[in-house]
Amino acid sequence: MKKATFGSSLILIALVGTGSAYAAASSCLDCHGNIETMKSMVSMPVASSAEGEG
Amino acid sequence: MGYVVDTKMAAADPHFQQGCVACHEGNASGKDKAQSHAGLVKRPSDDPSVCGTCHEGIAKTYTLSLHYSNAGMKNGISPRFSKDEKHTYDTAVFEQSCRSCHASCGDCHVKSPVISGVNTGLMDGHAFVRKDESKTCALCHGGRVYPEFTGDYGGTPDVHYRNGMTCLDCHTSTQMHGNGMSYEGRRDVEDKPSCLACHPQGSEKTEEAKSAHGDHGEKVSCSACHTATGYRQCSSCHLGEGAAASPALILGLNPRKEGQLTTLRLIPTVRSTFEKAGIKQMNFDSVPNLWDTVPHNVKKRTERTRDCALCHYEQENYLTEESLPKDGSSANLKLIPAGH
Q1: Distance in Å, alpha carbon of A1 to nearest chain B alpha carbon
Q2: Among B1, B3, B5, which would you mutate to test the A interface (most chain A Cβ atoms within 10 Å of its Cβ)?
């Protein structure tokens, strides 16, 4: 019975761990999850005055 | 916008539970962009087995499908080449050009492919878009078929679209992902869409329709009569600098079905198409520049269904020698209906 409880605890830890895997991986999202950060990292092409008219 | 991920969506979607690096690799603990992107795999689903970890069945059939192999494009153009040219095309052109954007799992479900240098980024904040025809289909098929279907070119929207149908109502997911068979081209696919599958001959509601279908039978395709208006020809964009859009309805002989009158579409291959790769297309004249097509602007009653004289006397929209593209394939002449 104790073994079963221990096993259940391991499963619970594993499940919680899976949830935190997303959080750990979200270091990518520090940039890719923030539109303002992403905007600041992109240099927009400069259009000449003749382009985009009409 | 671009590559911004919708974090709320990602937190709830099981695709993201293993973290970004599970598919994209790279370095999740990098301190800056260069470190983080070291070893980054931009298009992980170029290898369908990545998705096949969970979607095993689809990944298995998909590698044989036409969307993945692009065999239809390859086999369609190959008759124009000599043996040596075919080798050059297969090695130097096809893999680098045609096949470069056709088509990973992600090209249809995550991010639009880069077309002519235009990159519109993620479809929906990196959501795995299961079905949204305006994106999953139209980002590639938006040059001709999809805008014909919706009427975005200003023509008549397809009757099926007007009644709430979308691409997948005719083109099933099995066709998108393949059925495990390897085909030469889309016309060889066993369960490809067919008008008669839903509209069998004999099910007509009026005697006039029954009689018209009986009289024309195999000699005239469904689209020859039921195409609403002119549809986009490739010359509309590919004729060269300064070309003006010129939708047209062209009726001629089906190059793939002897003796049948059908709708034809001008394709963009010209004699100089592969010059940069050193391919002169030695057998250019072995196949035509116009091919049978099913324009996706179907209408029940058209000018041609209302007035027999348009085809039988005036022969309006018929392909003629004068209307053929200049310097086109001599095989085009075989598509001109008798008497023209």
Answers
A1: 32
A2: B5
Q: Do A33 and B5 touch (CB under 8 A)?
A: yes
Which residues 13-52 of A are in CB contact (within 8 Å) with B?
A: 18-19, 21-22, 24-29, 31-35, 38-39, 41-42
Q: CB-side exposure of B245: number of CA atoms within 13 Å?
A: 8
Which ipTM was obtained for this model? Answer: 0.71
Q: Which of A21, A33, A39 sits opposite B7 (nearest CB)?
A: A33
Are the CB atoms for B151 and B157 separated by under 8 Å?
yes
User: What residue of B is the nearest CA neighbor of A32?
Assistant: B4
Residue A21 in any domain: the answer is: yes
For B32-71, write each residue's pLDDT tens digit: 889 999 999 999 998 999 999 899 999 999 999 999 999 9
| Diameter over CA atoms, chain B | 76
What whole-number distance in Å separates Cα of residue B148 and Cα of residue B305?
Answer: 20
Nearest to B232 by CA among B329, B315, B297, B318: B297
Residue A33 is part of which domain span?
A: 2-38
Cβ-nearest to B7 among A21, A29, A42: A29
Q: Which two tokens stand for residue B175?
A: 């066709």
Are B137 and B167 spatial neighbours (Cβ–Cβ below 8 Å)? Answer: yes
DSSP B138: H
Can you list the positions of beta strands (E) in B177-332? Answer: 250-253, 261-266, 290-292
Evaluate if pTM is beyond 0.80.
Answer: yes
The domain tally of chain A equals: 1
Round to whole Å and give the CA distance between B213 and B209. 6
- Whether residue A22 lies inside any domain: the answer is yes
Q: Is residue A44 part of a domain?
A: no
| Three-class DSSP category at B248 | strand
Partnered with residue B211 across adjacent β-strands are none
Q: Say if residues B231 and B155 touch (Cβ distance below 8 Å).
A: yes
Look at residue A46 and tell me if it is in a domain. Answer: no
Instruction: Provide the token pair at B78.
Output: 């190959």
